[in-house]
Design goal:
heterodimer; A: Rossmann fold; six-stranded mixed sheet; globular; B: 2 domains
Chain lengths: 268, 417
């Protein structure tokens, strides 16, 4: 395997390659000429401040709305993604921040929603067996797959959402703030899960505001700022202050100012 | 100790987590049932309690109420509104409503009568035209709903007036068209009763069908190392079901027996139940009712789901209108008017379908309509006319909806959806 490059372009096995993707909402350019590459078996952390365009990028990839311009290559082939169904057939699975689960349906029903086995006379046994296989594969702890989602904890729901994204055997998984609503132990569980996805050879894009999570599981970091690319980093090489500088767009920023102030307070 | 029992049983793939409540057997079923009710999972309990209260009150006031002849009559009476309520269940499941089902049923009866009597067309053509009219109305509703996003209660409230106007127009100039007694639809609505032998065969087929489907599912689950019901418990359930329905049938057979119209209604309930519970269409209906956005993101064509339920609802309303026309042997301007809308909606809600979407079943139409019809039948037997009937039906509807809202709150508090 070739050693990873910072922007990922030298890799032959690009699962996703985006070139010059732009999206405008009215007068606001949410994304301007964004490039992004992700490789097999790699976790890419997509970071940036509020309004940097992370969610817009994820929504374009998952088919919520189309981009205005630019091209998206999946496994080297150009794909037009205009609907969630397009995204799914291109091998892109998305785990939304709000998880998009139906509280009134059971775990099995949620896992197979929209892709049931034998639609005219549901094969519930096969779906239940497959659900257990999937959850075992993720070493997930769900007490029963026949309970309604409403009775599960936040981490368990996140697990179900991730398990569902794996059903279509995708090559790329998009995770939108997977740990935002979780406690310490549940966060660790989900991070383990993400590592398992990577070890299974999937490409993962993770949006997060949490620098600890970025350090914990990502291989590379792509920074967006005001809708544009603002740097790529290898996680093992970049310091926190460089990363924050890139996200905020200045070496003199709120974070450094606060740090120096706290420093002075301690000295004084 | 119960812990040992738990480990003995825990070889099944789906029973390995120690947090699982591992009650089993008949005692376990009863204990689990009590807990469900406390958690706001009322199921059919309100209906059964309601039916017992109704039976006790009306029987003590008028001994005709529980007579075989009256029960037979009651079942026939309930069929038309029951079919309409079945359609209401479908729209309620996606969290929408159709307030015009009464008018649709009236228009359907009017179209049939005009085709048959005024135009001299064959019965089958009249039936097809009436049902097609229902389907087209559903198409129009779903088009307006999907295209413009107008709330369904407004669309169907407007539809109620438009369709009622159409009904009056179709019935001009007479205002009432009598359907000849020889018409197959009238025979179906008034005279066709299931022969005794056949009625027991139907009961046996229902219980047998239940047994076979459950047993096959249990075998399949066993083969896949999932927890499954024992042969004994399935057989016991099937026998209880047979005793219950064959007992009712035997009782009713002492009167005029069970009408084919009611059997047809029952058949429709079973078909809709299969569609809702065992097809991916049914799953998408529940999903849209539970979380529309989530359903859309899983790739379900949400607009098509709305289209299908609106069409199903007004089509079933049209079929219900034909049932009513057959029973009354006429189509009038008053057909499907007044309380038909609210009776059908009340039936669905009383039977346990939530007004908030995502919860309910086809059987709620059956159970609910029997409760509602029993009440109005009992009041008629007491010579109480429509004034009291309206007030009682209104009160019962309000109680059912309140129960729905309260149990929904309890479910949220206990982590059930």
């Amino acid at each position: 395997m070739t050693s990873p490059t910072i922007d990922g372009t030298a890799e032959t096995a690009n699962v996703l390659r985006m070139r010059g993707v732009s999206k405008t909402f009215g007068a606001v350019a949410a994304l301007k000429n964004v490039d992004l590459d992700v490789n097999r078996g790699e976790v890419l952390a997509l970071v940036g401040d509020n309004g940097a365009g992370k969610s817009t990028l994820i929504k374009i990839l998952s088919g919520v709305f189309p981009s205005d311009s630019g091209t998206i290559y999946i496994d080297g082939k150009e794909r037009a993604i205009t609907s969630p169904a397009d995204a799914r057939s291109a091998g892109i699975a998305t785990v939304y921040q709000d998880l998009a689960l139906c509280d009134n349906l059971t775990v099995v029903n949620n896992l197979f929603l929209g892709q049931e086995i034998s639609p005219a006379n549901l094969d519930e046994t096969a779906m239940e067996v497959k659900s257990w296989e999937l959850l075992k594969q993720l070493s997930a702890k769900i007490p029963s797959v026949q309970v309604a989602i409403a009775s599960l904890s936040g981490g368990q729901r996140q697990t179900v959402a991730i398990a569902r994204s794996l059903l279509g055997e995708p090559s790329l998984i998009l995770l939108d703030e997977p740990t935002a609503a979780l406690g310490v132990a549940q966060t660790a569980e989900v991070l383990n899960l993400i590592e398992r996805l990577r070890d299974n050879g999937l490409a993962v894009i993770m949006i997060t505001h949490n620098m600890v999570d970025v350090r914990a599981v990502s291989d590379r970091i792509a920074v967006l700022r005001l809708g544009q690319n603002h740097g790529f980093f290898l996680t093992k090489d970049v310091s926190n202050s460089d990363l924050v500088a890139s996200i905020t767009g200045a070496t003199d920023n709120e974070v450094t100012r606060r740090e120096s102030r706290v420093h002075q307070d301690q000295e004084g | 100790m119960s812990n040992d029992a738990l480990h003995l049983e825990s070889s099944n793939l789906d029973r390995q987590d120690e947090r699982l409540d591992s009650r089993s057997g008949i005692n376990g079923m009863i204990a689990g049932g009590i807990k469900s009710v406390k958690d706001g999972e009322l199921g059919v309990l309100p209906v059964i309690v309601g039916l017992i209260i109704i039976a006790v009150i009306f029987q003590s006031l008028n001994s005709v109420f529980l007579s075989p002849a009256n029960i037979s009559n009651l079942l026939m009476q309930s069929s038309a509104v029951g079919v309409i309520a079945l359609g209401i269940v479908c729209v309620l499941l996606v969290g929408e409503i159709d307030l015009s089902v009464g008018s649709v049923s009236g228009l359907s009866a009017a179209i049939f009568a005009v085709f048959l009597v005024n135009l001299g067309m064959p019965t089958i053509l009249g039936i097809v035209a009436a049902i097609a009219a229902g389907a087209i109305i559903g198409l129009i509703y779903s088009f307006i709903y999907n295209r413009f996003g107008v709330p369904s209660f407004v669309i169907t409230l407007a539809g109620l007036l438009v369709i009622f106007g159409l009904q009056i127009l179709v019935l001009k100039p007479a205002g009432t068209i009598n359907i000849p007694f020889e018409s197959p639809l009238v025979q179906f609505g008034q005279l066709l009763f299931v022969p005794q032998l056949v009625s027991y065969l139907i009961c046996a087929a229902l219980a047998g069908g239940y047994f076979v489907s459950r047993f096959m599912r249990s075998q399949k689950r066993k083969k896949n190392n999932l927890s499954h019901r024992s042969l004994k418990s399935i057989a016991l359930s099937a026998i209880l079901i047979f005793i219950l329905i064959a007992g009712i049938t035997a009782y009713v057979n002492q009167g005029r027996g069970i009408g084919w119209m009611f059997v047809t209604f029952l058949g429709l309930v079973l078909i809709v139940n299969h569609l809702l519970m065992r097809t991916s269409w049914g799953r998408s209906v529940y999903a849209v009712g539970g979380n529309e956005e989530a359903a859309r993101r899983t790739g379900i064509n949400v607009k098509r789901v709305y289209l299908s339920v609106f069409v199903a609802c007004s089509t079933l309303a049209a079929i219900g209108g034909l049932f009513a026309a057959g029973r009354l042997a006429s189509a009038a301007q008053s057909s499907g008017a007044a309380d038909t809308n609210l009776t059908a909606i009340a039936a669905a809600v009383i039977g346990g379908t939530s007004l908030f979407g995502g919860r309910g079943s086809a059987f709620s139409a059956l159970l609910g309509v029997i409760v509602i019809t029993a009440i109005s039948n009992g009041l008629i037997l007491l010579n109480l006319e429509s004034d009291v009937r309206y007030m009682v039906t209104g009160a019962v509807l309000l109680i059912a909806v309140t129960l729905d809202a309260v149990s929904r709150r309890a479910r949220t508090a206990h982590g059930r959806a």
